[in-house]
Amino acid sequence: MKPVYAHVDQAACIACGLCQMLAPKLFDYDSEGIASYTPDHNAGTTPVDPADLIDLKIAFRRCPTGAIQHSEHPFNEQ
């Protein structure tokens, strides 16, 4: 299984709270309610723990703005 990396496009985030509700181990918010991927402070360079992939996919599919991004490559390589 290839690793999966995640990142939140913070410019697209509308602070709805859905991702943190669906995947609390993966997402948190700043003081303005903008989400970030917590395992690597939104850098997109730490693979998602395989045990958390289902939660990531659910949050990704339910994000109303598409702010949650995922890739098979770290985001600093794209």
UniProtKB/TrEMBL annotation:
Query: What cofactor requirement does the entry state?
Result: [4Fe-4S] cluster
What keywords does the record list, in alphabetical order? 4Fe-4S, Electron transport, Iron, Iron-sulfur, Metal-binding, Transport
In the UniProt record, does the keyword Transmembrane helix occur?
no
Q: InterPro entries this protein is in?
A: 3Fe4S_ferredoxin, 4Fe4S_Fe-S-bd, ET_Ferredoxin
Q: Which residues form the 4Fe-4S ferredoxin-type domain?
A: 4-32
Question: Superkingdom, according to UniProt?
Answer: Bacteria
Known role: Ferredoxins are iron-sulfur proteins that transfer electrons in a wide variety of metabolic reactions.
What's the name of the protein? Ferredoxin
What organism does the record attribute this protein to?
Lacticaseibacillus jixianensis
